[in-house]
Amino acid sequence: MSLDDLSRMVREHSGTFLCHRIHDEEITKCVHFEHVVGPVAEEVDVPELGRLREFYATFGSILFYHDEKSGDAGRYLAHPSEWPGLEGELSGWLDMLDEDERDDCLPGGVDACLVIGETPQSGNYILVQSAGDAAGQVFEFDHDGLEFTHCANDIVEYVHKLLRPDGRLLTDIASHMRFVEGDSTDQWWIREMKDNAGLVVETSE
Length: 205
What we know:
This is SMI1 / KNR4 family (SUKH-1). The protein is α+β, with helices and mostly antiparallel strands. It has 6 helices and 10 strands, in the order αββαββααββββααββ.
């Protein structure tokens, strides 16, 4: 897929989540989502790695499945200037691993990766492998169990999958979003996603 095509998909894609209140499934509401694209900073040098450079020549950052009212979002691909801060946060989790465990986490070792994003407010991170046979491939780190999961062969494929989630991915996205607004304590679970491309996906609990 070309970056021009991906850019159109991201910028034009929107939809709604049908949610029910947690612990009271009879009460429902619809939440509108869209993706927020940040401006490109041309002076930032991005490595030529798994289409990463051309991706960040098109997008400065992307906040996926953003709900303006609550501020919740499903994933965040950060501006390159934010990568060092995210790497520091991930290092806090990895400091709990011994040397053998670190070497087993990712092909080439977890030190050979860029931390390019996160699942907001979760302690989970998005990584691109920077060396070895898996260079350029995208992984997600889940701090619950200190697990790394292969997600895509490059950043473009990763974003395309986010825009066309299956039930498993939507359930994972839903597990970190609660849509709490203002002074309310009500929390909500995504039951179904409908987007403007005609896709309808249900979660499982």
